[in-house]
Amino acid sequence: MKKGLLIVFSGPSGVGKGTIRKLFFDRPDLNLDFSVSMTTRQPRVGEVDGVDYFFVTEEEFKKSIENDEFLEHAEFVGSYYGTPKAYVEKLRNEGKNVLLEIEVQGALMVREKMPDALTIFIVPPNFEELERRIRGRRSEPEEIILQRLEKANRELKTMGNYKYVVCNDDPQLAADLTALIIKRHIETAQ
Q1: Considering its fold, how many domains does the chain have in total?
Q2: The domain containing residue 145 runs over which residues?
Q3: Does the pTM of the predicted model rise above 0.90?
Q4: Residue 92 maps to which CATH number?
Q5: Is pLDDT at 139 greater than 80 in this prediction?
Q6: Is residue 109 included in any domain, yes or no?
Q7: Of residues 2, 172, 20, the one with CA closest to residue 92
Q8: Is residue 119 part of a domain?
Q9: Which residue did the predictor score with more confidence, 166 or 144?
Q10: Most buried in the list 34, 72, 78, 96, measured by CB within 10 Å?
């Protein structure tokens, strides 16, 4: 069985990564599996442990760091996030194309460790639209929103580190373009 691709799907908070992913993820021709990240933050309304994230305590997370169990990990606005290495490799060895939907800092770490990863960066049509989306969540206090916006501004400057950049002006179009990119890489890897 051929080992699956590692796909790094990234972009600033609020850019619509989750929305886009949901529009292309279930296409059978892409043979995708989603890498579930681990986090110490509290679940948002509707998020499910083991589906959206593995929600753990800070103590559990730090123990995983000590044991070198992450492909990448980062701290952001008081919470830790990371991608469990063993989980990703298990899926890839089963022939699945594994999608990592991760923050920019983590994506750059994965790129350093795994230069053959397919990297896709999602950008907003403009910064004002990104701010509107982040504020529209109504799930965080103003202080956190401002931190997310400041971080997003820095992250947008890293888009040159990715193989592909896709603008999320129209989520369905962004999903179609992302699917096309992945499909092309699946075909050329055979």
Answers
A1: 1
A2: 6-189
A3: no
A4: 3.40.50.300
A5: no
A6: yes
A7: 2
A8: yes
A9: 166
A10: 72
